[in-house]
From TrEMBL:
Domain CMP/dCMP-type deaminase as annotated: residue spans: 3-120
InterPro entries (alphabetical): CMP_dCMP_dom, Cytidine_deaminase-like
Stated name of the protein: Nucleoside deaminase
Domain of life: Bacteria
Length: 141
């Protein structure tokens, strides 16, 4: 990682601190062009917005998919204070961003939390009803 990239990652960490100061969980992210120009910044706002999806990475991925053409999105890098969660990683993949650089890993994050604070996925069942479920998809692509 270059010195300029460390500056961008430090800005994402500062955004995380700003989120905490504002009463939200301490996570921040930004999206930058290849030359390091910041296009957009976001802070976690899950508590103040009462929105479980208001992670900064997801907000930036939605912004990029809406505001950038695919070629431009592919040249961007997201700098984020923590490794994106599964929800955000999926949105980042769908948005076509070029790269993600993070500070804390998910493992490091969990080590900083009190025991029992890691979110768990609910039990899931499937696949089922294949013959019926495939009907709305046939011919779509
Ligand atoms: Zn997330």
């Amino acid at each position: 990682m270059t010195h300029d990239e460390e500056k961008l990652l430090r800005r994402a960490i500062a955004l995380a601190a700003e989120a905490r100061t504002g009463g939200d969980p301490p996570f921040g992210s930004l999206l930058a062009t290849a030359d390091g120009t910041i296009l957009a910044e976001e802070r976690n706002s899950t508590l103040t917005d009462r929105d479980i999806t208001a992670h900064p990475e997801l907000k930036l991925a939605r912004w990029a998919a809406r505001e950038l053409d695919p070629a431009a999105a592919a040249t961007t890098t997201m700098y984020t204070s923590c490794q994106p969660c599964g929800m955000c990683a999926g949105a980042i993949a769908r948005s076509g961003l070029g790269r993600v650089v993070y500070a804390l890993s998910v493992e490091q994050l969990h080590a900083l939390k009190p025991p029992g604070r890691a979110s768990a996925e609910p039990p899931a069942e499937g696949p089922a009803l294949y013959a019926e479920a495939r009907v709305p998809l046939e011919g779509y692509w």
